Each structure stands twice: as C-alpha cells, then as structure tokens.
C-alpha cells in the first residue's frame, strides 16, 4: 500500500471517524475489516481464439445492516486493495442514506475498450459464474460502475437466472427497464450530485442561477450531473474525459451529441484544456466525477472553486482534503454526493421484489426525499459537532454500522 492509495485514504478516514465517535479499539477492528473477499481468475476466449486470464474480485465489506451492495468496475488498474476501499465506502454510503444494505464492490482488471461486445459478454458471464455462490438478491447485489453499464447487468442477470432456473431480476440493479430496471436509474447518480450541488450553493450563499461548474469525467455520473445542473439553472463551463477537457461549448446536450457522433470532446469552436487546467478553473463548483485521487497535495493548491462535490468515489486524498479545508472550500463528500445511484438501485431492488414498478415522478420524488434527509443530517451534525461535511457524513454512516454491530452482538 502506498502512502496515498484509495485504501489508505479510506482507512485514515475511518480511523478519524472512530476517534471522533469515541468508539473502542474493538469497534475499530470490526469496522476496519472486510468480511468476505473472493478473488477469481476469469478466462476469456478472444474472438481470434486466443485465451487470456484476468483477475476478478468481489469484496463484501459488510453485511451487518442487510445484503451487501455495490458496483462492478472494469478497469485495467483495479486491484484488491482498491476494491476493498470502494466496498468500505459503499458500506458508509448505504448507512448514511439509511438503506437496508451493507457494502460491496467488485471488478475485473481489464480495459473494456479493448474488448469486442462479444468478448465483453463472455467475460461478464464467466465472472458472474465465478462469483455466483456469493451473490443473490438476499446476499449481495451488484450494479454498474466505471467501465460497465446496463448491458453488463443484463448479462449478469441472465447468467444468474439461467443457473437458478428462473428469472431473478433482483440479483443486480442498473438493468435495462424491460428486464426489471427502474425508471430514473440511469440519471440517478448525476441527479443526486445536482441536488447536493444546489444545497451546497445555498449553504455558501451563492445564487444557483448562473453558478459556474467544471466537471472532471464525462461518463455516467459526469454527463447526467451536467444535464441536471443545467436544468437547475447552473452553467457548466467545462468538462473532461480521460483524453482531456473542453470549454466554450454551447450546451451540454450539444456537446454530448458531438461526443456520441465522434467519440471525442473536440467539438469545433470549443477550447481545449488539460485535466489539471480543468481542476484549477475559476468556477463556483468543481465536480470530480472520474476516478480516485484527482485532488491531491499536488493539485489541491490550485483549486479556485468554492465548493467541491465528489461525484467520483475517493477523488480527494487526505492531504488534498486538508489543503481544501484550509482554503475554506466546502467539500460535499462522495458518500453523500454520489449516493443517488445506490438510492435508486435500492428502489429498483424493492420494485423487483414486489414486481410492481413506479412512475418516473415517484422515483424522482423519493430520491429527492432521501437525499435531502441525508444532506440535512450531514449539515446539522457538521454544525453541532464543528466538523467538516466529510467527517459529519462518516460519523453518521460509520456510527449506524457500529450501532448495528452492537445491537446484533458477536456470534458466538
Ligand atoms: P464511467 O466509466 O461511465 O465514466 C468515467 C469517466 O471518467 C469517463 O468519461 C472517462 O473518460 C473519465 N476518466 C477516466 N479517467 C480519467 C482521468 N484520468 N481524467 C479525467 N477523466 C477520466 O464511470 P462512472 O459510472 O461515471 O463513474 C465515475 C465515478 O463515479 C467513479 O468513481 C465511480 O465509482 C463513481 N460512482 C458511479 C456511480 C454510478 O452509478 N455509475 C455511482 C456512485 C459513484
């Protein structure tokens, strides 16, 4: 583990929270230990007949408050430590939103852009078979994350169902609507990021109309956040993806049309930016919505935004966080800011269990209600305990898991 890895960040945040809550060393041991780790080899037959092996993971960090829940990431750099860190964050996130879940994460160390659609399907089905004994609607419910989407969820649901002998839609969330997906799931994380941004602007006394925003990452979270922010009256001035950033586009919708047609952000008439330039733009709000460790001790000093809303998981290292704090930046932490995704995943699971599906308005209203309750709780605890929003969110999430441990007791 290096000094600032996603796991060291997550553990140092947990340590600080255990101390703030004055929990015991016994609590620290139970809270800092993932409960079940499965590492699998995933063989893939390429379209040309070659066979390759990939490392796959599923980490069930906690099942204390319910089945574990968390995304599946396809990225060449994913390893066991990062999967543990992300599963830990899911645990506090679900508890903060008061969802009846523990936390999990999974993934395959593969670059999905190098796979054909058929290869991606074979890899997904084999990974699902390998982790099959430990997933299920009552055990652990995967969802999309970086590098996966509703197609992967459809293949996972089908592989699980074929093995069960009947359709089991509730085994994954983020599915296509016709397979038991929920209206509003695709945009849910971005919609939640926008709600969190609106509330942070209110707290900082900045007018939402015309407030300027820069977004790192133009994927499932970044794109939908950009759309929702524009709809609320904010001005998205720059976005970026893995190849760099762009400013000066007429609207997010027009940039997206260009992106879909050309697979790049080089829209004629726009201005190019590096990812670092994007982080340092003079805007009201900066939204890191790509990968971990974007705001570090190297990049935090140059941040000019008054608010950072963490669309991504773990985008700010502890050193980066300390610098932002000293600069007076309000940081809306990942476990709060991006919880819209797991909240609507929870709605999808509930709908699958009941075989009764909600309207788009019902989903939107219920998402807003849960997000606002969590935001209010975090704002109030931050004020009463004189802590940052991150510490406050972690205190609420970790505190609930610690209480559940205490009430359930230790078996035997
Ligand atoms: P995605 O794969 O759809 O998009 C990722 C985006 O980040 C792409 O635009 C990619 O080009 C860009 N990117 C990758 N590396 C980059 C770099 N070095 N610099 C700038 N941009 C880079 O993934 P996603 O689902 O949007 O997830 C993004 C983040 O949000 C992750 O941290 C994920 O864990 C978190 N998250 C996702 C969800 C969800 O529902 N999808 C929910 C909660 C949190």
In short:
The protein is of the alpha/beta class and 412 residues long. The protein has helices spanning 6-20, 25-31, 80-96, 117-131, 150-164, 185-204, 220-231, 252-262, 275-279, 318-326, 334-337, 340-354, 360-385, 389-408; strands at 36-45, 51-62, 68-74, 103-108, 140-144, 212-216, 235-241, 244-247, 271-273, 285-288, 307-309, 330-332.
Calculate the mean pLDDT score and round it. 97
Q: What order do the SSEs take from the amino end to the carboxyl end, as H and E?
A: HHEEEHEHEHHEHEEHEHEEHEHHHH
- Which segments are poorly predicted (pLDDT under 50) over 5 or more consecutive residues? none
What is the 3D form?
A: globular
Which small molecules are bound? nicotinamide-adenine-dinucleotide
Largest sheet: 7 strands, mixed
Strand % is 15-25%
Work out the radius of gyration. Answer: 20 Å
Can you describe this structure?
The protein is built from 14 helices and 12 strands. It has helices at about 5-20, 25-30, 80-95, 115-130, 150-165, 185-205, 220-230, 250-260, 275-280, 320-325, 335, 340-355, 360-385, 390-410, and strands at about 35-45, 50-60, 70-75, 105-110, 140-145, 210-215, 235-240, 245, 270-275, 285-290, 305-310, 330. The strands form 2 sheets. It has a 7-stranded mixed beta sheet with strand order 9-8-7-6-10-11-12, with helices on both faces. The longest helix is centred in the C-terminal third of the chain and has 26 residues, at about 360-385. The model has no long low-confidence stretch (mean pLDDT about 95). The protein has about 400 residues and is α/β, with parallel strands linked by helices. Helices cover about 45% and strands about 15% of the residues. The protein binds nicotinamide-adenine-dinucleotide. Nicotinamide-adenine-dinucleotide binds near residues 222 and 242.
């Amino acid at each position: 583990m290096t000094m600032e890895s996603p796991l060291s960040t997550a553990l140092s945040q947990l340590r600080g929270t255990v101390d703030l809550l004055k929990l015991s060393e016994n609590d620290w041991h139970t809270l800092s230990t993932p409960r079940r780790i499965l590492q699998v080899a995933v063989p893939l037959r390429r379209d040309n007949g070659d066979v390759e092996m990939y490392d796959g993971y599923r980490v069930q960090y906690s099942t204390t408050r319910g089945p574990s829940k968390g995304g599946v990431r396809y990225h060449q750099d994913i390893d066991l430590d990062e999967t543990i860190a992300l599963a830990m964050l899911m645990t506090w996130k679900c508890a903060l939103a008061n969802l009846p879940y523990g936390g999990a994460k999974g993934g395959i160390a593969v670059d999905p852009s190098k796979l054909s659609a058929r290869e991606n399907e074979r890899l997904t089905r084999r990974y699902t078979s390998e982790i099959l004994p430990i997933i299920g609607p009552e055990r652990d419910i995967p969802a999309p994350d970086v590098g996966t989407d509703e197609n992967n969820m459809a293949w996972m649901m089908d592989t699980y169902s074929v093995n069960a002998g009947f359709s089991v839609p509730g085994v994954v969330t983020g599915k296509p609507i016709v397979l038991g997906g929920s209206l509003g799931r695709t945009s849910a994380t971005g919609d939640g990021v926008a709600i969190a941004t609106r509330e942070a602007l209110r707290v900082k006394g900045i007018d939402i109309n015309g407030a300027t925003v820069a977004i790192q990452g133009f994927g499932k979270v970044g794109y939908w956040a950009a759309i929702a922010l524009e709809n609320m009256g904010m001005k998205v001035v720059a976005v970026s993806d893995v190849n760099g950033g762009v400013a000066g586009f007429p609207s997010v919708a027009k940039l997206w049309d260009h992106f879909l047609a050309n697979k790049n952000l080089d829209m004629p008439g726009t201005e190019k930016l590096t990812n670092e330039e994007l982080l340092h733009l003079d805007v009201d709000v900066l939204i890191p919505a790509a990968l971990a460790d974007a705001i570090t001790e190297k990049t935090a000093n140059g941040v000019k935004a008054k608010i950072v809303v963490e669309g991504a998981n773990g985008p700010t290292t502890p050193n980066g966080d300390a610098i932002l704090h000293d600069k007076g930046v309000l940081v809306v932490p990942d476990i709060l800011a991006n919880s819209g995704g797991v909240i609507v995943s929870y709605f999808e699971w509930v709908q699958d269990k009941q075989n009764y599906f909600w309207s788009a308005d019902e989903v939107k209203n219920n998402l807003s209600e849960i997000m606002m309750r969590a935001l209010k709780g975090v704002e109030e605890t931050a004020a009463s305990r004189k802590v940052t929003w991150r510490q406050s969110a972690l205190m609420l999430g970790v505190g609930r898991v610690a209480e559940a441990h205490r009430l359930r007791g230790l078996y035997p």
